[in-house]
Amino acid sequence: MELDIVALSRLQFAMTALYHFLFVPLTLGLSVLLAIMETVYVMTGRPIWRQMTKFWGTLFGINFVLGVATGIVMEFQFGMNWSYYSHYVGDIFGAPLAIEGLMAFFLEATFVGLFFFGWDKLSKVGHLMTTWAVALGSNFSALWILIANGWMQNPVGSAFNPETMRMEVTDFFAVLFNPVAQAKFVHTVSAGYVTAAIFVLGVSAWYLLKGRYTELAKRSMTVAASFGLAASLSVVVLGDESGYLSTEHQKMKLAAIEGMWETEPAPAAFTLIGFPDQEARETHYAVKIPWVMGLIGTRSLTEQIPGIDELVARAEGRIRQGISAFDALQQIRAAGGADKVAPEVRQAFENNGHDLGYALLLKRHVDDPRAASEAEIRQAAWDMVPHVPTLFWSFRIMVGLGFFFIGLTALFFYLSARRRLDHYPGLLRLAVLAIPLPWIAAEIGWVVAEFGRQPWIIEGVLPTAAAVSSLGASTVLLTIIGFALIYTVLIVIEMALMVRAIRKGPEEDEEPEAELVPQSLVAAE
Amino acid sequence: MILHQLIDYETLRVVWWLLLGVLLIGFAVMDGFDLGTAALLPFVAKTDVERRVVINAVGPVWEGNQVWLILGGGAIFAAWPPLYAVSFSGFYLAMFAILFALILRPVGFKYRSKRDSAAWRAGWDWALFVGGLVPALVMGVAVGNVLRGVPFRLDTDLRIFYEGTTLFELLNPFGLLCGLLSVAMLVMHGGAWLVLKSEGPVAERSRTYGSIAALVTAVLFALGGLWLWLGVDGYRITSEIATTGASNPLAKTVEQAPGVWFENYGRHSWMMLAPLLGFAGALGSLAFFKARREVPALLASSVSILGIISTVGLSMFPFILPSSIDPQSSLTVWDASSSHLTLFIMLVVTVIFVPLVVAYTAWVYRILWGKVDAKAISDGSGHAY
Fold it and tell me: Do B71 and A106 touch (CB under 8 A)?
């Protein structure tokens, strides 16, 4: 890949987004776990649950600040590096970002300070409400950002306005209740819960192996295992595949994930493993399980899932429609408005306007899409195929890890129920080693979703290559180096502080666990 | 959806122009004292305990305050997409500098007290100082350059191109003056906050630096006004103004002329209130510092911020981002907004959520009211930074 501005801008976005998402899942999940632990504290009055909340809260805080610090970068980068994108879809895409700030970030950030500073200033219930506010705020922010992201994958409720040369909202509720956004929200938030559960499970397992803080560790493991089991079932069963049939390119992504070059008769087989070959356009040594893909993908026995070849052929048709939309648009703009052109031009734009983005795909090959040759149209259609082996393997690693998390959490759930958590050092070691795995699964998941979306930044509407700012390559290279430096330093510091805080363990709680008076008789205040 | 027709497009655009001001002022007032406090850190606090008093004075609230900036970014994106696109990419390296500083700030607050080493803490003190000073300075410089006009132009696809917007070209004398004004203003505000939240030597030093900054704010604000009058050309629309037209900046013509940025005050004399508040607030804050009235000093510095930022907005109306190399491309209130429907939806959301946010923010501030307890910090009790 040559170092042009598009490649550099994509690299910077990928780098900063993947880095940001190192901190987000733990924030999402741990905030809920903290709220659960503190709820138990308020309900039972047993100080160990407060000690647990404070201890995991310390680790939460170390992680949380980097999520905050790197989150601002994400919001600003759309304008900085993707200015044509910002102009083109700000009318729709900006709204969920603004609502995220208003509804979610304020809640989360205003109360997170009180979470740390308010232990002595608030009543028990008051502090519990604060913790829930933080958990609610962080989960709301996931909702809004995934509504924004879901719209990029499935741009509903909007239309192109030739006068302003941009997409404008036509149906806000369609944007809100976008099925792709809903599927992504459930999947992403569940993944966050799994991450936090495995983290708590692993750190607690380490304490049990060392024989330290065993009471705190066992209780933490019980919470983490049950929460993690529910979440890992949800993350696998409600995988965001359910949204993969709603649009043409989501179908392409699905076909690429499956290495499915030709359309198969329904219900399609699931390729368990194989070696997809982009050049030969086939998948070698494929081991297939009949029916499974059709069932997972369509939830039916009769609906067909299109293969890559068929999707490319369809794309060619849409590119041709896009060209006629592009032509009509030029005439409309030359005349100075849709009301000033011949009715058949207006009609042509109305009929084909939804494929305008497909004409813009040709801009990579030719300045004026109307002048594109047959070969260039075919090439642009083939540009629609993402790198199949990357998607194929990323997806399989992610799903494999998902099943592993179900097994691990189910196992510890069982051990916890049998009160045998500390009986099997081998399993405890496995739990410690499993700590990094949810992060790998989550990052790979984003690779599948976003790398698999190429060449589109907004499916069918705007190609990624058309969306960048007209900056100098050296300028972007400079900021890439800047981000890389500061991010590297910060992750090293963060990991060191995390390890240090874990080694140090929980602080002695001020109130000893003396139950001279049964706690259940003491009023909650 | 027909509901949005209830409020006409022109009104919505003006409302969102006002809300843009509310957001910027909200950010400068709320997060401004965090930035000012961080910039004052090395000067008002000498010992480790003193520094921790300063950090804990903003520790529990800075995170919520910073959301004003995040919301500002999001709201500009949603309500003024061309403004977001042109300014964030046009000021690319300046934005990077702000981001770099703002990445350091949260980490500085949170990580500084995690280890005892003096070198560790001194390092984070530097990070916090940079995290406070740089955003204050760069944002002021950016505003100065907006008043002068930014070298961008739009092609017929409304794609944005720039000519020479390197960091160094932003640092022209007028831009720098505005940057210094911004620093002085936020240091005054941060000083007022610290006087309110601390005792003893930290409070005394903060009073001294806050007073100096208040005076400097008033002087630089006057100087900036004079410079704007004598040395900076304003912009005016010369074609007919379609206040409810489609958001396409290229539909108008614009000329550049001296003194134009002062024309609005001739037309609407009530607008003079804004610069007057800018001066009165700064001088009032100076007087209250001297009189040892803590809360009034903070209120006065807030009023000064309100006045100064409003002055910029009112002087430029209806322009929000003039172009120096192709004035026709300039963004104005009438041609750089979102669609009618989006502005309406965002207004509904704002009307519902802003009162909620203000209510719970006020509740949190009430809980945290009072001076930072230096003793509790030095004996290590509580969950202080």
Answer: yes
Residue B382 has pLDDT above 90, yes or no: no
Residue position matching structure tokens 């005349």: A335
> Cα separation of B96 and A417, whole Å?
52
**A65, A81, A98 ranked by CB distance to B110: nearest:** A65
Contacts of A161 in chain B (CB under 8 A): 246, 339
- Across the interface, whether the CB atoms of A490 and B64 are under 8 A apart is answered no
Give helix then strand counts, H and E, for chain B.
15, 6
> Exposed, middle or buried: residue B115 (CB in 10 Å: 0-12, 13-18, 19+)?
middle
| Rg of chain B in Å (alpha carbons) | 21
Q: What ipTM score was computed for the predicted complex, to two decimals?
A: 0.91
For every residue of A424-467, DSSP letters joined together read: -HHHHHHHHHTTTHHHHHHHHHHIIIIITTTTEEETTTEEGGGS
Among A102, A125, A485, the residue to mutate for chain B (most B Cβ within 10 A): A102
Contact B160 A469 (CB under 8 A): yes
Q: How far apart are CA B301 and CA B210, in angstroms?
A: 10
Q: Give me the residues paired with residue A158 across strands.
A: A169
Please list every residue in chain B whose beta carbon sits closer than 8 Å to the beta carbon of residue A333.
Answer: 156
Is a pLDDT exceeding 80 seen at residue A102? yes
Q: Domain locations in chain A?
A: 5-246+386-506
Residue A297's Cβ-side half-sphere holds a number of Cα atoms within 13 Å equal to: 31
Cis before residue A96, ω within 30 degrees of 0?
Answer: no
Confidence at residue A343, expressed as pLDDT on a 0 to 100 scale: 85
Q: What is the pLDDT of residue A520?
A: 47
Half-sphere exposure for B99 (CA within 13 Å, toward CB):
24
Residue B342 is nearest to which of A68, A80, A95, comparing CB atoms? A95
What number of residues does chain A have?
525
- Cβ atoms of A318 and A362 within 8 Å: the answer is no
Q: Is A256 exposed, middle or buried (0-12, 13-18, 19+ CB in 10 A)?
A: buried
Ordered by where they begin, the domains of chain B are 3-368 (1.20.1630.10)
Task: Kindly report, residue by residue over B71-101, the tens digit of the pLDDT.
Answer: 999 999 999 999 999 999 999 999 999 999 9
Q: How far is B88 from B150, CA to CA, in rounded Å?
A: 12
* Dist. CA B323–CA B321, nearest whole Å: 7
DSSP letter at A103 equals: I
With contact defined as beta carbons under 8 Å apart, do A16 and A70 qualify? yes
Summarised one tens digit per residue, pLDDT across range A442-497 is: 999 999 989 988 899 998 899 999 999 988 888 999 999 999 999 999 999 999 99
> Which phi and psi (to 5°) does residue A469 adopt?
-75, 155
CA neighbor of B51 nearest in space, from B126, B106, B101: B126
Single-letter amino acid, residue B261? W
- Name the residue with tokens 């997809």: A276
* Beta-sheet pairing, B331-332 with B319-321: antiparallel
Structure tokens given for B240 = 């007919």
User: Which of A19, A23, A91 best tests the B interface by mutation, with the highest count of B CBs <10 A?
Assistant: A91
Within A100-123, where are the H helices? 106-117
Q: Which of A384, A422, A419, A9 is nearest to B92 (CA)?
A: A9
For residues A137 and A111, the answer to whether their CB atoms sit within 8 Å is yes
Sign of CA dihedral B353, B355, B361, B364: negative
Contact across the interface for A165 and B157, Cβ inside 8 Å? yes
**CB–CB of A73 and B103 under 8 A?**
yes
